[in-house]
Write a structure and sequence with these properties.
The complex is a heterodimer of chains A (about 475) and B (about 80). With about 475 residues, chain A is α+β, with helices and mostly antiparallel strands. In chain A, about 40% of the residues lie in helices and about 25% in strands. In chain A, helix 1 packs parallel to helix 3 (about 125-150) and helix 4 (about 160-170) packs parallel to helix 5 (about 185-205). In chain B, about 60% of the residues lie in helices and about 0% in strands. Chain B has helices spanning about 1-20, 35, 40-55, 70-80. Chain B is globular and about 30 Å long. Classes of the chains: A alpha+beta (about 475), B mainly alpha (about 80). The interface between A and B is medium-sized, with 31 and 28 residues.
């Protein structure tokens, strides 16, 4: 039996609130499944399970605020069961199709990440690894099957239409098609459907209950009360508790103070010409819809991640006076939250991804960081961080290392400048890339080589896509 | 004129959907949209995607400088509808 405890999402986090359970007692779970949502100062974070097994008992209730490490559930591991492995594997695989299609990719990726963590710990028996491999193959097959068998059901819907439908309590899936491109359901379709519904309901109920024309608002209520249930309950427990924004400020304060106190930073920076990168992207993006376009950030992230594979002194953790380099590059992306503060979300195995895949990851994580739904593994294990001020930021930034990491990159705003290329003054788009690194682990000489390597990769951008 | 207003309302709604915290009421339609509302490049890309879905007008990357303010974005879409 394994006791699952309230996870920590940072050295400065003391408590977490169990906002919602996603499993019931007796339910079988597979590695990578989300079992609960934890409300933290970093927003709602999805807690994954790292073993296959059955939830034996839930030890904490929804809305309960608990210290880090407090038991929240008991998991009966698959290996404890007497039933043959293959049967259980089949059962757990059967559960997968009930998960929404859009989350399947995430599950696969995180299962891989979880496998990596296990492999690092060197405590995985060979048979278990084989079982995992079989299961992942089965998952892939299933996910491919569901993609093959479901194309007719894949209705396109614009985000604003989806949101409006939710507000009105309308099920947009009931519509055959919309009036947007490729039959996408757009706002106008939702409004038309709503008007039709209101008209028909007021006609049929006119003689009986005229006040029922306000029904749409009524149908909105359950959603609101659900939100209240998860959000307001924890507040009721401690009225004097600081707000999440205040807690996040305190956490950032604790982290950066520790970093500046303990880590002897050194700083380097390099101006990188982006002309080739931008030319490459303008060709790539020309005929693509906005959601498929690749931003230059993705190329820069890609160059950083790939360069780090040959500079291990900048990618890993410094703990208790010892440095451990990481074999994988889990690139932390510092995302600023509109409500204040920031959160670092980790792009797992970024060195193995191309800029197109990285772009998808960045967009997805930025959205989930702001709306809730980041996974536990994404906020825990970044091996290095990038702080990017974006195209409206300042020319450059020197960042503070996020302990126990040993390096952080800062990307300034791309800016147009007169520049000398091949002995001629030309117009160029320049971006300043900075590196703050831990002098206990590396020296400026190798830091400079790392920045030069990133520059070099950005001059052949087609290889990064 | 009605069309202009409707488009403006639609775009504001799409922005609120992406960034619910922004103060859209005080937005000057002639000012730079991203600067005024603190929208980053990913927010802007999502906005263009939503505009494309709702109006069937796809704003190409090379035309970004023509859609910097709410007013100019409305005109851009109107001229192509």
């Amino acid at each position: 039996m394994k006791i699952l405890t309230m996870p920590s999402f940072g050295s400065d986090m003391a408590t977490g609130t169990l906002a919602q359970w996603h499993v019931k007692e007796g339910e079988s779970v597979s590695k990578g499944d989300i079992i609960a949502s934890i409300d933290t100062m970093k927003g709602l974070i999805d807690m994954e399970v790292f073993d296959n097994g059955t939830i034996d008992s839930l030890l904490a209730g929804e809305g309960e605020e608990l210290d880090i490490g407090a038991p929240i559930a008991q998991l009966r591991l698959l290996s404890e069961n007497t039933v043959s492995t293959s049967n259980i594997e089949k059962q757990s695989v059967v559960n997968i199709p009930s998960t929404e299609t859009e989350t399947e990719t995430d599950i696969d990726i995180d299962a891989t990440a979880a496998a990596d963590i296990d492999a690092k710990a060197n405590n995985v028996s060979q048979s278990k690894q084989e079982a995992d491999t079989k299961k992942e193959e089965a998952r892939t097959e299933l996910s491919q099957q569901s993609q093959v068998t479901q194309p007719n059901k894949q209705l396109l819907v614009s985000p604003v239409a989806r949101k409006r439908a939710l507000e009105l309590g309308l099920d947009w899936r009931q519509l055959d098609h919309g009036h947007g491109p490729a039959g996408a359901i757009i706002l106008q379709d939702i409004e038309t459907a709503e008007n039709t519904r209101v008209q028909s309901s007021s006609q049929s109920e006119k003689s009986i209950q005229p006040e029922k024309s306000h029904q749409p608002i009524k149908s909105h209520q359950p959603i609101k009360s659900l939100q209240l249930k998860t959000v307001s309950q924890p507040k009721a427990i401690k009225e004097t508790k600081p707000t999440p924004a205040e807690m996040m400020r305190q956490a950032i304060s604790a982290n950066v103070s520790r970093s500046k106190r303990e880590i002897p930073h050194y700083y380097l920076q390099l101006d990188v010409v982006l002309n080739k990168a931008l030319d490459c992207l303008s060709i790539h993006n020309a005929d693509l819809p906005p959601s498929k376009r690749v931003l230059v950030n993705a190329l820069v992230y890609c160059a950083i991640a790939r360069s780090l594979t040959t500079f291990p002194a900048f990618n890993g953790f410094y703990n208790d006076g010892q440095y451990h380099a990481s074999d994988e590059v889990h690139l932390g992306n510092a995302i600023s939250l509109r409500t204040g503060g920031l959160i670092v979300a980790s792009i797992h195995n970024a060195h193995r991804l191309g800029a197109i895949e990285l772009m998808d990851k960045i967009t997805d994580q930025v959205t989930r960081a702001r709306e809730g739904g980041l996974r536990m593994s994404e906020v825990q294990d970044a091996t290095v961080t990038v702080s990017n001020l974006g195209d409206r930021g300042s020319d450059s930034i020197q960042s503070i290392i996020f302990p126990p990491q040993v390096a952080i990159f800062g990307i300034g705003k791309p800016r147009k400048m007169p520049w000398i290329i091949d002995d001629e003054i030309v117009g160029a788009t320049i971006v300043n890339i900075s590196l703050a690194a831990d002098h206990r682990v590396s020296d400026g000489h190798s830091g400079a080589r790392l920045l030069n390597k990133i520059n070099k990769l950005l001059q052949t951008p087609e290889k990064l896509l | 004129m009605n069309n202009k207003l409707a488009l403006q309302t639609l775009i504001c709604r799409l922005i609120l959907d992406i960034a619910p915290e922004v103060d859209i009421e005080s937005l000057d339609p002639n000012e730079e949209l991203r600067e005024e509302l603190d929208l980053d490049s990913i927010d802007f890309m999502k906005l263009l995607e939503a505009v494309s879905l709702e109006t069937s007008i796809t704003i190409s990357e090379s035309d970004y400088d023509q859609v910097q303010s709410l007013q100019s974005m409305v005109s851009y879409i109107e001229n192509r509808t």
